[in-house]
Write a structure and sequence with these properties.
- The chain is mostly beta strands.
- The chain has strands at 3-5, 14-17, 22-25, 32-33, 38-41, 48-53, 61-66, 72-78, 84-88, 95-103, 106-115.
- A 4-stranded antiparallel beta sheet has the order 4-5-6-9, with no helix packed on it. A 4-stranded antiparallel beta sheet has the order 8-7-10-11, with no helix packed on it. A 3-stranded antiparallel beta sheet has the order 1-2-3, with no helix packed on it.
- A hairpin with a 2-residue loop joins strand 10 and strand 11.
- The protein starts with a strand and ends with a strand.
Length: 116
Amino acid sequence: MLRIAGDSNYKEPLVLYSDQTENRYPYSSPVTVSDDGFQVFPNPAQNFVTIVLNKPLENTAVYELSDVRGEVLKSGVISSDCTEAYIDLKGIPVGIYFLSFKLKDSVINVIKLIVE
């Protein structure tokens, strides 16, 4: 079970509790937690974004970073044995984007990502 505590305005640290661990993230590095078992941080981001999977995937996944018009600006593969991935945001202008994750040609989640 995952519980989240902390001020939504990021005045307090964000604390993620699971059955056996407690992780604290400073308010300067907000974390987006997915219902599908992964975390994306920081959000807002500047130079890169980190994707952490709570457990390895059963199959290879694909991520796509799209702008508000739906144009895919970056994409990549997360292998099934991987639990952490990084997306380089060099060349991505300041704005609002959507980070989607696909597994077997089906979108499993879309996260709004802000690039500063």
